[in-house]
Amino acid sequence: MLLSLGMLMLSATQIYTIFTVQLFAFLNLLPVEADIAAYSFDNKTETFDDMPARFGYRLPSDGLKGFLIGARPENACQPIEPPPRENLTGAFIVLIKRYDCNFDMKVLNAQQAGYKAAIVHNVDSDDLISMGSNDLDVLKQIVIPSVFVSELTANTLKDDYMYDKGGHLVLIPDFSLPLEYYLIPFLIIVGICLILIVVFMITKFVQDRRRARRSRLRKDQLKKLPIHKFKKGKKVASNIMVRITETRSLFWFNLTRSEYPENLGSIA
Q1: Of 142, 164, 206, 266, whose CB has the highest number of CB atoms within 10 Å?
Q2: CATH code for the domain in which residue 163 is found
């Protein structure tokens, strides 16, 4: 055998452990909700779902606090007005309307205007989409984080949490990975387990077959054995090696106490 049995064998406990760990990771890495925490001037607090973009830098681990300002022009398809120059402890975040140009260009214009993050909102829909980029030159220039929100979220932010109304936001980082990042390794582990189980079963079958072949005589050896036909009333030796036709195995029988083996009719 090319591989020893010890290298191929996985116990049921080991397989169960692998499946349990991968399933736990699968269930706990699902995307979390409430990625935007909004605080109004009168201490009203709300949380909103968002979808991080597939370009730009990730949010800091402790989140990004900032003041929300609407983009001018709203679609940010061209250079937009910069944020106020007041000396504030937080950064400025710009709210951008979807459509009319690519997501990466919107975020790049926000970055060049001096904003530390961008929120792009949907139009006539509350669906969340993952913003991507196909322009490598633009992609390399983007360093600020950006997220996508629904139209309902954008309207709520405009009503209660804008900078001119005394509100502020905290963009909470989402440490979960996209589905394919952990689903593919999970399927790989499952596939490896199944392959090892099949290999182990085949190996065990082959070894059992070889062990069975080694435990019995070859055909040429069986042909050399003398064959005695017993007749009723004839005495037999005390120890006889006989062959049972059904199993083709050799056995020693002690027939000392049986002078006349009438019960050996099945022996050839």
Answers
A1: 142
A2: 3.50.30.30
Instruction: Choose the final residue of a domain: 174, 205, 240.
Output: 174
Which residue from 126, 131, 130 is spatially nearest to 156, judged by alpha carbons? 126
pLDDT at 244: 47
For the entire predicted model, the pTM comes to: 0.56
Query: Are 91 and 64 within 8 A, CB to CB?
Result: yes
In this structure, the number of other CB atoms found within 10 A of the CB of residue 207 comes to 12
Surface-to-core class of residue 94, CB atoms within 10 Å of its CB (0-12 exposed, 13-18 middle, 19+ buried)? buried
**Residues 170 and 189 placed together within one structural domain of the fold:** no
In Å, how far are 93, 99, 103 from 124, measured between CA atoms? 22, 11, 17
Domain count across the chain: 3
* Predicted local confidence at residue 7, as pLDDT: 42
Q: Which two tokens stand for residue 46?
A: 């709300």
Q: 208: domain range?
A: 1-30+176-215
Is the domain of 39 the same as that of 168? Answer: yes
Q: Strands 45-48 and 117-121, how do they pair? A: unpaired
Instruction: Please write the tens of the pLDDT for every residue from 44-61.
Output: 999 999 999 999 998 888
State the pairing for strand pair 64-70/168-171: antiparallel
